[in-house]
Design brief:
- The chain is an alpha/beta fold.
- It folds into two domains: about 250 residues, TIM Barrel; about 55 residues, Alpha-Beta Plaits (2-Layer Sandwich), CATH 3.30.70.
- It is built from eleven helices and 14 strands.
- Helix 1 crosses helix 2 and helix 1 runs parallel beside helix 9.
- It is globular.
- The model has no long low-confidence stretch (mean pLDDT about 95).
- It binds iron/sulfur cluster (2 copies).
- One iron/sulfur cluster (SF4) binds next to helix 11.
């Protein structure tokens, strides 16, 4: 039996209200479905029309052209983006790139991308730049995304971090340390200290789509999770996820249509075996065999990050 849940709520103590489903914009972009700008913007707009008011992107996703079109006249939509910048200069460049890219005069959430316990220290100058940008009204809240339990524990104790975007799913698929249970406990403690929490990878990058109601529903039901970001590339996926996050019944036909499209990482045949992608994957999902990249599907979380470093453009989540 589903239990209906609220559709909107506060993001920690940021003063920002978000829909509890966040549209993950990686999926529509060049690293994954590579939709045309109009097609991608249309999927975003269909999600907004359903009631979604929260979008997550990142500098490496190259999704700004879609957002620029879809966000026109939608100032109520909360936009989060992320950067790997670790210096103040790099952070400034990322902020200006994002502002120009999406055609806004502010960014709601600016996060440091994919932090671990150690990089949280190393990227401190970038965080401090975003805190100064926040004081000027260019950014409304700051924080970081992470696949690491230790980073969540550390972030919980940092007073100037407003938001944490952690990897959370029932099997801990994609965690770089700890277990699913340890991540859930660390997130609960961070939320109790006032951090805004929006989870990622509740569906394991698409691995759990066949059981989406349980996998996504479990994370969305946690009282210490303010929102859940899910990558979507079709209006039907948005419709399905929006129902699940609110604990509403899913029509059989919709469930079947979405589950029938499993995702995988495709390696094109012109791969040169250079191993750039192997070095980029923090999940140990890629190896070189017979001069070509080979994917271990049991480890791959379909994040698409390896695609951003391939000089031959031969990796894609399809
Ligand atoms: S980075 Fe691209 S070309 Fe190099 S091994 Fe990986 S898939 Fe092949
Ligand atoms: S192989 Fe690529 S898509 Fe899969 S987890 Fe590694 S970086 Fe992400």
């Amino acid at each position: 039996m589903n239990a209906e849940r609220r559709a909107y709520g506060p993001l920690g103590r940021t003063g920002i209200t978000v829909s509890r489903l966040c549209f993950g914009a990686l999926t529509i972009g060049p690293l994954q479905a590579n939709l045309s700008v109009e097609e991608g913007a249309d999927v975003l707009r269909r999600a907004f029309d359903l009631g979604v008011t929260f979008v997550d992107t990142a500098e490496i996703y190259r999704s700004d052209p879609y957002l620029k079109v879809a966000l026109r006249g939608r100032d109520e939509v909360v936009l989060a983006t992320k950067t790997y910048a670790y210096t103040a200069e790099g952070a400034e460049e990322s902020l200006h790139k994002a502002l120009e890219g999406v055609g806004r005069s502010w960014i709601d959430l600016f996060l440091l991308h994919e932090m671990d316990e150690r990089t949280l220290d190393g990227h401190r100058p970038a965080l401090e730049y975003f805190l100064r940008a926040k004081a000027k009204g260019l950014v409304r809240a700051v924080g970081f995304s992470t696949h690491s339990v230790a980073a969540v524990r550390k972030g919980a104790g940092l007073d100037d971090v407003d938001v944490i975007h952690p990897l959370m799913n029932r099997e801990g698929l994609g965690l770089v340390d700890g277990t699913a249970a340890e991540m859930f406990a660390a997130v609960e403690a961070a939320h109790a200290r006032g951090k805004g929490i929006y989870a990622m990878k509740a569906l394991g990058g698409g691995h759990f789509y066949a059981d989406a109601e349980n996998a996504l529903g479990q994370v969305a039901a946690l009282p210490f999770v303010d929102a859940v970001a899910v990558g979507m590339k079709t209006p039907e996926e948005a419709e399905l996820d929006w129902l699940i996050v609110r604990g509403l019944p899913v029509p059989d036909g919709l469930r079947r249509r979405v589950a029938a499209r499993p995702r995988r990482l495709l390696v094109e045949e012109w791969c040169q075996g250079c191993a750039e992608c192997v070095a980029r994957c923090t999940h140990g999902a890629l190896t070189i065999n017979d001069g070509r990249a080979t994917v271990d599907d049991s480890r791959c979380i379909l994040c698409g990050y390896c695609a951003s470093v391939c000089p031959e453009f031969c990796l894609k989540v399809v």
